[in-house]
Amino acid sequence: MTTPRENPCVSVNQLGQYLTGTPSLRKRIIQGQKNPVDPQYLRYPAAAQAITEFLCEGRDEVILRYHQRRLLNAQADTDFDAHRLALCAEALQHCLVATDDLATRAVASPADPDLAPLDVAGVAVKVRPEVLLRGVDARGQMRSGVLKLYFSKHTPLDERAGQYIATVLQLFAEERLEQQGPVDPRLVGVFDVFAGRLFVAPKARQRRLQDVVLACEEIAGRWNFH
Q1: Are 181 and 142 in contact (CB under 8 A)?
Q2: Virtual CA dihedral for 20, 26, 28, 29, nearest 10 degrees?
Q3: Which of 95, 145, 152, 213 could form a disulfide with 133 if both were Cys (CB 3.0 to 4.6 A apart)?
């Protein structure tokens, strides 16, 4: 059992859902962020690792198919593990169908999982992109970006939530990765694996950033009431 978190925090994917969710969903998100699931019960780390390897090692579909077979043939100790293995294998199948959407000209490398979160209105927004992207623009200048993976079989991202997440990802990249080259919004996005949709950072973001700040103020204000 995990210890409740004292300080307000939220993952970037959950923040996107919060910004577009009903009051009851927003309440559940705060409760879930304050009382996190034990890491051993997370469902998709294996799928995220496989997709990251695929993106960073030449985008060879053989990589995804190898990990898919490995997951399907793995021996599960519990019913939960069996369900998790099946979900990860299914996620990789969806990714295989949508590989064209991820076949950018950028060079991908694994992101540092220990990059510090964003501080937004007193809330630690945990971004943790899986992949760093680097490309060259028409003038030959190096550009950078990030890719975040989103996993949910039954709750796909809608356009608004995807754009909110991508907006926060762009802010994160500008604050944390500028030394790798100016951030190109076209290299910033969140990929909904089960839906096979890539949401890139929108050009118009000022109002979305204001919404993000207001949402974080609300999370901070309600943190101790859940």
Answers
A1: yes
A2: 70
A3: 145
> In whole angstroms, what is the distance from residue 55 CA to residue 102 CA?
8
- Give the number of other Cβ atoms within 10 Å of residue 60's Cβ: 12
pTM of the predicted structure, to 2 decimals? 0.94
Strands (E), the chain: 9-11, 107-110, 118-120, 123-126, 131-136, 142-150, 189-192, 197-200
Kindly provide the b/e burial profile for residues 197-221, where b requires at least 16 CB atoms within 10 angstroms of the residue's own CB: bbbbbbeebeebeeebeebbebbbe
Contact 210, 121 (CB under 8 A): no
Adjacent-strand bridge partners of 119 = 124
pLDDT tens profile 96-155: 998 877 756 789 999 998 899 999 999 999 999 999 999 888 788 888 999 999 999 999
Give 12's strand partners. none
The distance in angstroms from the start CA to the end CA of the chain is 17
Q: Chain centroid to CA 43: how far?
A: 14
Longest dimension (CA), the chain: 55
* Per-residue three-class SS string for 129-154: CCEEEEEECCCCCEEEEEEEEECCCC
